[in-house]
């Protein structure tokens, strides 16, 4: 019998942390429709698993994700003049939008551990995660302009909110490689670390987040994202509504009890 094809997304657990590893190292983990299917399924499984309290996403080999694999039939241009061309918008609708929305709606924190190049949709996929930790040798490239496209996978929304309009336009139009240290300096990512310590740092950060009240962390993400599109008074009202919900939670009671008793809290809500 033929051997089963190797998984395009590797899944591993360490205590309450689940790590998803993009696994097309020979192609710098560039996206195919097959990888999209496996990655979304892995995220859905993590979201449904009550034992998972933090998710780490990284890449196998020397890259995080080089974006869309341009040899994928879903996007490969038809070389024949006047021939029917692929509908890239359809691919976005079927694959990238569900992926981006799933990341932003996960019930637990999501860390991108960027271990090499993150280009095009791969860069914006990473930036859509809650916390981006990158190896010092990693880089971020808005490669879309080099092939006549516009940023996708949430890039047009994320970039100006992370670094402002001037930086966002320059990054998107020029498509230059941005080293991880510079990405940290301008606020595009949270932190870069030495290459050799990326896995250890990511594991420590994930374990720390997993010990925290993850339901409150997910609601914090929701509130911050929503806050950019409403006025101050509306944000204050939204905070009040969220606090009504969170104040009735087990984690709030546990957090206050632990604070008063000067002990470490044991958060359980999700």
Short précis:
The protein is α/β, with parallel strands linked by helices and 270 residues long. The protein is built from ten helices and ten strands.
What is the topology?
Blueprint (H helix, E strand, L loop, with lengths): L8 E6 L2 E6 L10 H16 L5 E6 L3 E3 L22 H17 L5 E5 L2 E3 L1 H7 L3 E5 L3 E3 L13 H9 L1 H10 L2 E3 H6 L5 E3 L4 H13 L3 H14 L4 H16 L2 H12 L9
Parallel strand pairs: 2-3, 3-5, 4-6, 5-7, 6-8, 7-10
Antiparallel strand pairs: 1-2, 8-9
Helix pairs in contact: 1-2, 4-5, 8-9
Characterise the protein shown here:
This protein is of the alpha/beta class and 270 residues long. It folds into 2 domains: 9-210, 2-enoyl-CoA Hydratase, Chain A, domain 1 (Alpha-Beta Complex); 214-261, no CATH class. The chain contains 10 helices and 10 strands. It has helices at 33-48, 88-104, 121-127, 155-163, 165-174, 180-185, 198-210, 214-227, 232-247, 250-261; strands at residues 9-14, 17-22, 54-59, 63-65, 110-114, 117-119, 131-135, 139-141, 177-179, 191-193. Strands 1-2-3-5-7-10 form a 6-stranded mixed β-sheet, with helices on both faces. Strands 4-6-8-9 form a 4-stranded mixed β-sheet. α1 packs parallel to α2 (88-104), α4 (155-163) packs across α5 and α8 (214-227) runs antiparallel to α9. The longest helix has 17 residues, at 88-104. The chain is globular and about 70 Å long. It starts with 8 loop residues before the first strand and ends in a 9-residue tail after the last helix. 37% of the residues are buried. The model has no long low-confidence stretch (mean pLDDT 95).
